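An example makes the point: we let one protein speak, the chain in one-letter code, the fold tokenised, and here it is:
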Amino acid sequence: MNHILKMRVVIVFVALFTLLTASSFAQTVRDSLKQVLQQPGLTPEEQVMTRIRMGRALVDGSRKDAIASTQTALQMSRTLKDRKYEALAHSALVSLEYTAEDTALASHHLDSAFLFARESGDQLTLASVWYRKGWLENRTGKPHEAVKSFQESLKLGKGLPGNIYETNVYYNLASIYADWNDTETQYRYAKACLTSAMTRSDPDDICNGYQAMATSFEYQFNGDNSKRELLDSSLYYNRKAIAIYETNASRISFHSMVALLALNTANLYDQYFPRTYRDSAQHYLDIALKIGKETDQQEVVASCYGMMSTFAMNDGNYNRASDLLLAGLLALKTYPAPDNRLMAHLMEALSDVAEKKGDLPKALEYAREYSRYYAKAFDVDRMAIAKKLEAQYQARQREQELVTLQEKAAFNRKLNIVYIGLIVACLVALLYLFRSYHFRLQSTIQQQKLLEKEKHDGELLIRLKEEEALRLQLEKQEAELQARLQTEEAARLQAEQQLIQTQKEQLQKDLLAGTLQVEQKNELLESLQEKLREKAVQPDLAKQITRMIETHKRMDKNFETTRTEFENIHPEFFRKLQEKASNSLTKLDLKHCSYISIGLSTKEIASHLGVAPKSILMSRYRIKQKLGLGKEEGLDAYLMAWRENNPLSEDAAG
């Protein structure tokens, strides 16, 4: 279970405009922006910028409304002379459309943002668009291109007043170099991020700067665990970031980031500190869980419950661990679209806990649920991969089209020069040179068309081969997954069959031993009966002894028959009763218990045993004492509980 729930929490670097804000904060900003829009005398430029900010505030509640607000700002910006406002509106739509999973449209807005930013001539606007380009490239799996874009943004915005993107550029660069395990460069950009944030005094930027430093020290500590001062530094900056959040909660935009910080801090305490620091870990888990629920972060919520269940498991409290996992499962189900992979992880953990508790049916049930959710997650991942490949294909196609247009433009420029030369030559050589040029031009154009067609056909063939190879790879992965699932299911079924066979063999051994004992006893009684016939004994006494012997034979016969039938249904019944009574129950007591458990009344039991009902009542009282049942607990209810709740346990007795 550790590989699922006690997982390493690595804080994801996100830019300031990722648009993941807490609902309460978004509501406050939304209301204030509405009031701004209602103010008289607001200039068109101010209205455009306010609506762009409104789009950012609305994204957490309704992405559709956020896009609509920003589209309105874009329409208004087209009436303005300064093109920078249109560039900023397109730039804002890049992140909104990307979060709406429309990468192609996001790329289109990015191209438009560059076009209008260059037309405006505003260097800071162009720096912001380069930042947005790096942001999109980093999220579409192009980190090397993203680094170049971020560096261009830093170069253009260096020293400019009002450069709100500098902190975020350093933040994203630190993220990329962390993924590349370049801890030295990561630390340099994380330090630059914090320095830039301190100059702006913005709580969001300062929180991001502290978090970048904490992550940098954590990565360095992972490389050399002997340097505990690196771990202490990581915890120090994490606590500083959380303290900024707690003192500026109303001004913090990205509450979700603080949830990840708190979760990471709890994980560090749990992983690298002794058990005496459990309270510290739990404190930060409570913070992470609270903010995770408020900001709808399913992974944070699941991780919190998972880590707390691991604490309970380490304490040997399996019931508590199971309850925590079920609470996490319930929390995930409250989301409109719960993450199938997280649901699968929780189901797998519940299966492990049930197995440790000895509840194999539950463990199997949770394992089946795990397989079901994992299959759903696999389908979602496959669709996401398909969309990503489609977006990459469209991006490559657009890049190729851009290259083709550039080549055509260069060719046209050269061709214009040739035209001018040919016109001069035509004026000198008159009609003959003009006709010569005409034929030569036609030949050149035809050759260019043939070359372009061959190039296009070659590119199309390569693209088709790549797509076919990708499709075959996906089919192979799916087949491997199905085979693995079938192997696991066969192993579970084999384990269940072995358990049933073992129980059956043990029952047969117990039945054989009991049968031999009864036969030996009957032989002894028959021998005694023969001796009585041979000896001169008083007739009344001989009859009485003979009747007692016959009664015992009948009781043994009835007992063995009942016991055999009963143990075929409940093989653990007599053993559990003996354990409860400390092996103090007699065979008559066990027979009495078996009659009660199958629902016979006191009169029916007395009739079967050939005794008075009063004797049955006394026997019931003795059995209750041997089983340790209280006055308020009924023997009938306790024994019949075995038939409904297998195995018999202390909980069933209560």
Notes: DSSP finds 25 helices and no strands in the chain.
